[in-house]
Write a structure and sequence with these properties.
heterotrimer, A alpha/beta, B mainly alpha, C alpha/beta, A: alpha/beta, 4-stranded parallel β-sheet, 12 helices, B: mainly alpha, 10 helices, 0% strand
Amino acid sequence: MSELGYYPGCSLSGGGIELDLSVRALAERAGLGLREIEDWNCCGASVAHAVNHELAVALPYRTLALAAGQGFDEVLAPCAACFSRLKGTAVRLGRDPALVARMADVTGRQYSRPVRVLNVIEFVDRLLSNYDLAAKLGHPLAGLKVAPYYGCLLSRGEGIVADDPEQPSAMVRAIHAAGAEPVEWNFATECCGAGFSLSKTEAVIGLGDAILSAAAEAGAEAILTGCPMCHSNLDMRQQTINAAGRGPHRMPVLYLTELLGLAAGLAPETLGLNRHFTDATGIRAGRS
Amino acid sequence: MQHSKDDNSLPALVRRLCGQDVAACYQCGKCTAGCPMAAQMDQPPHRVMRLVQADDADAQLTLLSSPAIWSCAGCLTCTQRCPKGLDPAAVMDALREMSFQRGLVSKAQRRVLAFHRSFLATIRAHGRMGEFGLVRRYKLASLDFFSDLLVAPAMLKRGKLPLLPHRIRGRDEIRRIFQRTAQRTQEASHE
Amino acid sequence: MARVGVFICHCGENIARTVDCEAVAAAAAGMAGVAHAVDYKYMCSDPGQGLIRSAIETHRLSGVVVAACSPRMHETTFRRAAAAAGLNPYLLEMANIREHCSWVHEDRTAATAKAIDLVRMMVEKVRRNTPLQPIEVPVEPTALVVGGGIAGIQAALDIANAGKKVILVEKSPSLGGHMARLSETFPTLDCSQCILTPRMVEAANHPNIALKTYTEVESVDGFVGNFSVTLRAKARYVDLDACTGCGACTQKCPSRKIPNEFDANLGTRTAIYTPFPQAVPNKPVIDAEHCTRLTRGGCGVCQKVCPRDAIRFDDQDRLETVSVGAIVVATGYKLWDHSALGEYGGGRLADVIDGFAFERLASASGPTGGRILRPSDGAEPKTVAFIQCCGSRDERHLSYCSKICCMYTAKHAMLYRHKVHDGRAVVFYMDVRAGGKGYDEFVRRAIEADGAEYVRGRVSRVYRRGDGKLVVRGADTLAGTPLTIEADMVVLADAVTPQADATDLAQRLGIGYDEHGFYSEAHPKLRPVETATAGVLLAGACQGPKDIPETVAQASAAAAKVLGLFAHPQLQREPTVARVNEATCVHCRACIAACPYRAIDDREIRTRAGELLRTVSAVNEGLCQGCGTCVAVCRSNSLDIAGFTDEQVMAQIKAICDF
């Protein structure tokens, strides 16, 4: 059984636990082993780069150096924010040998070989192409209409995201594989403001409301995401948005891996669907 | 192009911190047009770029103590669409860094600052972020006790709020990283 | 024994400020072969030239070096002076001690030393100069004009009206170009058709103009005064001589759903069609790609209904070779395809249209009869957003300013407000560039009298909401706020770009083009209508974005250049061309393969009895541009450029290395 390096990141043991559960369950179902990078540290998320540009590179650098040292060519970072920081750093290290030397000095660790960082969409595509996940999707979602939501971190970033930043389509293949239908909508790449959910709650309510409304207007029955920050902002905060007099919204927000897990016949609890704030248990495989 | 402006000018500092040459900005406003947070900003993104270009003492103070730079969500919409190929999000980062290092963060941004400080303190101590610790530190630092308080029990119930953050083995390394990068950055953002 | 005269110019202070001219003259006087050396304040002045003339006579000079400005500036002046004194003008050379020395240095001692080096090099060259004679080439006094838009029409009419013959070639089925598609024209709002169609008819009927529509340039051979151009007349499937343009065929053609390019694809046309009602020639053409008969067989309705038997399904492309003395390139432009602007819908939103589509909506002869109706549902848009600089001034796409968009957008906003009185016209702009006669007044009129709302700021995104509204997310940078409007239609001012096949044609013509594909003029200021290839001239937007007045002015200028060329039965060319030493040429043909101007060919050497002795390379002096590529590749050292022989160049290098 082949193995992929796994970087769960901090959120996946907390607010983003469903992403961790569904990624692991799906990998197991497809026959791909995930091995956690030993002693990984926080990537710095959206905070480090706002206060110290060197710290923002040094934190992901340490994890990349660990991964390289532990023999990984590829590392899966399911959290979109972690992916963006890790891949962004890996790309910069690839382009700038002086930075590699400086970071080796700062961290005391060598980045001995280049490490490729995968996001959750690339991970699912990998399971569909190289492992036998496609054959195991025996419980299609029967035309469930989903709004693929890429947000900022899975649509933009030169050298980080390969998709078309204005009209991304990376999730479409997986959505079709799960038997669901992607809707055409206008907010697939709009920012939800999750970074400010604690500190600028009022502004973030407006952004979240616009995204939820656009998905509903486009006929979506669920929003599909690959980012724990977007997820908590749209799922957990949906009640806050409703309480502020918007909506009311009742829009389930699913991780891409949860959708595929359902199509693979995994139990909703295994995937973490019971942990959502906005009820997602109505979404079931094989429904008519 | 080589500029003869002195090395401590704002454009020069910004170039050193994030590699962006703000002279390229022709003030088209596309950054402001697409910014999800522009409506919240006292200085919308194109004005921020202009104030960096202007670089007089007033502009520096206005900018580095402006709430606007702390309102950037880092979503990269501006960067993606900038017709000059500039990266205004990176400029925002550089300005925040300078503002933070020089202690000029706007009072109005107490909550953002508290969040950032709490976040960094948590990582520095444990190597990883724990949401419970983060929220606790944030509440203490921001004196913002009530927002989100109601969500905590629900998060606990869903297994989304681990009470103890995982502490990594390499905590010494993390402390070293914080120390070394703090030195470097102090040098870069003051000069 | 060489007797070289050296003349050092002060150029007022230009040279003398940095170079000690007297010292240079003194040093020159001591150089080998120099019989006379003198410095003077203004060598190009009448007394200065007089110095040269009298010195040639009194010192019996065999060569002259003038150390002064660039030869581009005054070589002709000084060579004329030498010729007046009876010296072959090619025995005079210039050493550039201004641009190459005094202007680029500050240290007087070093600059003076360098000036002396430059003079010594040129003295060494001139000692080895030989008298040369200019090359005389006959001129075929017929012009080829490529492109039948307003630029080509204007150039053709100007040349033809001066009594010279013109072959006017247009690749589409009708004359008229883009101008025929415009509704009204800035800044006077004349009806475009009304001012253009008389010119189209005049060009078509002119006794000196041979009009060839639906024809393209296949290949170009020859040189200034003597081009040989092969034209491809594309199969039209309609016999123009037999056809009367009655229109019976176009009425009956059953293939009716073909997007009409002339109407920016807003309307449809038939497979046999006349491009537009005022087309010249006003006769149809069959679109072979869409004609049922030509693609699948059957049908043939047009042939059945034609009262003149003019339909020719077996028509073929025809090649024809013409001889011309000059070529005017007037191939125009196309609008950039905004599908690369994903943030504005990437070309997938029906109601986000380009400038031509708006022109056709506003045109009385357009698909809506001149009513502004949006493409998706035919409703009259009550808010129209105009977005400028689409593709232009954008490093991700095209760095340059397309120049005409500010004006046509103001015109669009104005026309819209004239036609939809209760409508809002919101123009998102970065800068208004209205530098032309009456142009700024025109823009102000759009704003002040016609109520166009100008908002300074680029739009970040346009998307279509479920209710059909186009949400335009812009900014008002002057107010310092984001600004979102809901529009019913959006008009993008797409960049002006070269034609898709512009570089391909440039290579056939042997002319240069810039990184975008616009054709390069010989000099950006002083030779704006000539190309680097003698006898090939430029008119209109193929050289860079231009509006109609500028295009017409350049077309007339190109015509004037053609007429200047045709004013003499022969033309003189510089004799600095390659020469083959036939005695040593081994005919390896490396030079023939290397020559970028196709100026070298085989020459058979025969006995008087006609028996072939051997074959050598031979240079066509009319074609050769003296670039020296052949000299560099010649393995037997049998080629030299007259006036720039290896011996001369080596002597120059030696002069600087040995000293």
